[in-house]
Every structure is written in C-alpha cells, then in structure tokens.
Amino acid sequence: MLKNWIQRWEVHLSTRDRNRRAEPFTWGFDHLTDMDAYLPEPLPFSDWSKVPPLELYDAYTERTLAASDAFFTPQTQPECHLEDDWLSFRSPVPTPYETNNLVFARYFPLPEKKFASERPPVVIALPQWNGDHRSHVAVCQLLNKLGMAAVRLSMPYHDSRKPPHQMRADYMVSPNLGRTIQAVRQAVQDVRVIIDWLETQGYTRFGIVGTSIGSCISFLTYVHDSRIKVGAFNHVSSYFSDVVWTGISTRHVRNGLEGHITRNDLRRCWSVISPHPYVKRLRNDLYHGHKTLLISARYDMTFLPHLSRQLMGEFERQRIPFQAAWLPCGHYTSGEFPFKFYDGYLMGNHLRKYLVANV
Hints:
Layout: H1 2-14, H2 53-66, H3 68-71, E1 81-83, E2 86-90, H4 98-101, E3 102-108, E4 122-126, H5 137-145, E5 149-153, H6 177-200, E6 206-211, H7 213-222, E7 228-234, H8 240-246, H9 251-257, H10 263-269, E8 291-297, H11 305-317, E9 323-327, H12 339-356
Parallel strand pairs: 4-5, 4-6, 6-7, 7-8, 8-9
Antiparallel strand pairs: 1-2, 2-3, 3-5
C-alpha cells in the first residue's frame, strides 16, 4: 500500500514540468574534439567519417576509461573571483555555449574562530538535474550549522549558465551523446577547480555531497580526487545510461534515443560518465580511510532500486567499505515532507561524523 501511494505521488510530481521536449538524436562527436589532450594515443582511424559510429565510441570509451585521470583533471587552472560569497571562473572545459563556460558557485563560509589552528572542513554540494538556484541552499545552511563550510556549484547548463534559448537544463542530459559526455566531464572538472581554489584559501579537509545527477558527478569527482575524504551520494545508480533509459524523469530523452541506439550500446557509449566502472579505483591506497555513504530510495521510479543495488554490489565485490541507507520513499518525494528531513539528517550526520567530529 505504501509503495503504491508513494509511486502515485512520484508520477504526480514528475509531471508538473510541462516543458520537457524530445531533442533529435546525434552522436555528438563534435563535442569530443579535444580528445588528443587526454588520450594516451590517437584513435586508430585516419578518417572518422568512414567508421561506424559505434566502432568509434568503442575505441573512444576503451581509451578514455583507461585514461580517466587525465579526462577528469583540468588541463589549466583558471583565475577565480570571489564577490559577495559568489565564486566565478571560466570552465577548463570549453563548450560552444558562452553562457555555460562561465561557472558560478555560491560560497557558504563559517565565521572564523579566534585562535583556530586550521580552517573548518568544507563540503561541495551538487544539486539535482534542473534544480534551480535555490536547490541545495538549505543543505549548505545545514552544513554550516553542523560546523562545515560549503560551496554549491551551479552545474553545466543550469541557472545563469543556461543558454538563452533553453527553458530547461536539457543540454546536460540529452540524445546528443557527445554533448552529454562533455557536460558531465565539465562538471567534474569545475568541482576540482573549486577544490583547488579552496586549498589556496587554507582549507584542508574536504567532503562532497550530491543528489541525483549531482550524486553521479560528485561520485566521479570523489574517485578521481583523493583530497575528498568523505562522500554522501544521494540517489545512486550503476550506469548513467540505465537511469536515462528506465527512469520516469527522462522519458523524453529516451524518446529521442529509441530507434537510433539500443540500451546496451548506450551503456557502452556512456560508460565513461558512469559510476560503476570506477568503483575499483577506491581500492587504491590513496583512498584508504575514505568514508562513503550511498543513499537510495525503496520506491524510486527514476533511479530504479535494482540499479542502486548493482552499484552497492560492485562495492561488495571489490571489498570496498561503504555505508548504505534506504529512504522509505521515491526520488521526487525525498524532497518532500517528511522524507526530506530524514534525507538531510543522513547526509549531514555522515559528513559531520567523519569531517568534524572525527578530527
């Protein structure tokens, strides 16, 4: 009975947005043109136009997965500007949309304690897909109350980074395969620029929290930047493509994909931006002692529970310690009363326990 009630509520909440539109499918290789900067060797094709697209993607993903450190590491260090608690800089991953290339992040500092020997911990917060500028502000304010500074990133194609002709942040997840990969890569590198800047400000203890697609971005950052010692990932899944293919939030994206690519082929193409292939990185000694919380919802119709269990199963298979928590609700309803308070408690308590109280 609870499941049926929650899932009816989920469907209602998911259909409030009337602006979802299916974009045309495209392979999007034009958004992957800088691959020479991070691939150890060029793709073995002299003329891309004569190679089947899936064969190109197979070669691309194989090499990118092997070179993911370079793929997710900024090649340049942009100059950062802080004004009225707003941090801005040019993204190290340029896109064709100028508004998207200027990154904004809201900074939530803590008052400095007199005679403190070090700065407090700081947490980077990444909101959900299509969350507006208010999304996760309450999370950052909670972190402040728990003794942590926070920085909330406006992710690619969100907030003021949205191109003028776009009503939603659909350029971040769309049937344009290459642009979706580029957007996720850009988000990860943007977070790492913020961490670099925070280090220049004297911060040494870093955590990260993300919700939905923000959870995916934060996890990819977490496994590629060992400076982040604590992670709370709110709504988790194994493969980026499976969420898009099966979730109620992305039906319009799937409509643009179907007939052009299969679910399995899409999984291969988007494996480079999926958490599952990178779990094994946490076996590295650099990640010894890191604290990982994976949060899922029992009645989620966007990140289906079996996809969450798939990711948790990979942690178990790799023998990597983690904590799991299951919300008694769905994806959208986790942001509604009373579930949002339990969700906030899980995230905040995990970060406080291992960043503040465990010093």
